[in-house]
Amino acid sequence: MDDFDRRFEKSFSMVAFATNRHLVDHMRRLITLLDMDADSAMLWGLVAHLSVAHAMHPGALPSDLLAPDGFMLGEARPVRLADVVQVSGLPKETVRRKLEKLRERGKLGRTEDGRWVALRSGVDATTYEFTRESVKRLLQTARVIENILQHARLD
After folding, report:
1. Number of domain units in the chain
2. Segment 51-109, tens digit of pLDDT
3. Which of 11, 40, 41, 133 has its CA 20 to 30 A from that of 152?
């Protein structure tokens, strides 16, 4: 057992509490601030991730991938419904229906061949601020967990 595993084992309850508190708070904020159910948020995120995953090379610097406005350089690759269904684990009809609602809200677009893509215009001021605050909270939670692990009693 390495040092991390020992520290994790000795501080499991506190680490689990901090982690779960962060996740529950994040989901609560997402549902209320973005007015979106958890499945729709996951699907929106999956389309966005799958659309740009081809460009995310290990060790790539932000300057290699991002335009001055903070968005990805180049075009995103549209995603097939079947791929979103497979990755999400949700029923096909549920995915199709929720993606269509996200399209109606301006979060996603469709290509002529029926593939899905996250729209830059779907990132409005509320979404931008939500993401900004989420990153700050995630970093704070990481610091809390690191502190717990660092001070775990290993005797």
Report:
1. 1
2. 988 888 888 888 888 888 888 887 789 999 999 999 999 999 999 999 999 999 999 99
3. 133
Rounded Cα distance, 9 and 118, in Å? 40
107 domain residue, yes or no: yes
User: Is residue 22 within 8 Å of 137, Cβ to Cβ?
Assistant: yes
Query: Among all chains, which residue has been given the structure tokens 């991938």?
Result: 65
- What region, left, alpha or beta, does residue 89 occupy, with left being phi > 0 and alpha being psi -120 to 50 degrees? left
Q: Sign (positive/negative) of CA torsion 103, 109, 111, 114?
A: negative
Tell which phi-psi region holds residue 70, choosing left (phi > 0), alpha (psi between -120 and 50) or beta: left
Instruction: Give the domain CATH number at 96.
Output: 1.10.10.10
- Examine residue 155 and state whether it is found in any structural domain, yes or no: no
Buried b or exposed e, range 56-82, using 16+ CB within 10 angstroms: eeeeeeeeeeeeeeeebeeebebbeee
107 closest CA partner among 28, 66, 46? 46
Tokens of 148: 């717990």
Overall pTM > 0.90: no
DSSP secondary structure string for all residues of 50-95: HHHGGG--TT--HHHHB-TTSSBSSPPPPB-HHHHHHHH-S-HHHH
